[in-house]
Amino acid sequence: MSWTRYVAIGDSFTEGLGDPYPGGGWRGWADRVAEGLATANSGVNDGVMYANLAIRGRLLDPIVTEQLPAALELKPDLVSMSGGGNDMLRPGADLDALAGKLDEAVGQIRATGADVVLFTAVDPVGSPVIRLTRSRVEAFSDQIRLLGAKHGAYVVDQWQMDVLRDWRMWTVDRLHMSPAGHRRVALATLEKLGVPADDWRDPVLDPLPELGRGARMLWNARWARGHLAPWVGRRIRGRSSGDLITAKRPTFRPVIDQSG
């Protein structure tokens, strides 16, 4: 399969937070996938056109009601859709309603003839706070796998990617992937699509050294003060990190390789 019109929709994961370009702005796994598609399609027609409508902080509902219609207007042949992670962090998340919304959205995309890429969550077992959501995140990931089978969508199963439980794959806020994490997800996505790419399993990382109890408590306390507290504050005020943000790539543009 050769895709030449790729649109990515979602939240900060898809926007690329944590993976900066040297000159400013965010790269992320979706940009890296677009570059991989462009390399695979080198010399074919006009190459690969790519748009990224994702905005940090977005819940699944605005992804479906705002980003999806804009994406379909571009008439893509490939759409990656990741959403629900921010919903999962809220205690009252309705899994059935979220799964139903995602089911309808994927059906709309597939009805146009475009292919779809979905993502399960990463297993949060190693996170001192987010692991409290693990049971519902796992249940939602199960739903995503079922939706993939139902609609013939590609599913990148991050839950099974043990390397993503390594903190070197994440930035200091523990919510956004580092460049290394984004790279692994991009390579896993290309593998799922059958596009030639490096193996996301390499290099195999040596285990991180174990922190003592005191060092671990200090590490967690600094994270809570510097990152968890501001996040909770925004929730209390009904604000989002993406309130003043617009899509970084709202229309199709040719892909420029940023390999590295």
Automatic annotation (TrEMBL):
The keyword Membrane does not apply. SUPFAM superfamilies: SGNH hydrolase. InterPro entries: GDSL_Rv0518-like, SGNH_hydro, SGNH_hydro_sf. Keywords: Hydrolase. Residues 8-184 form the SGNH hydrolase-type esterase domain. One of its GO terms (molecular function) is hydrolase activity. It comes from the Bacteria. Gene3D superfamilies: SGNH hydrolase (3.40.50.1110). This is SGNH/GDSL hydrolase family protein. It comes from Actinomadura rudentiformis.
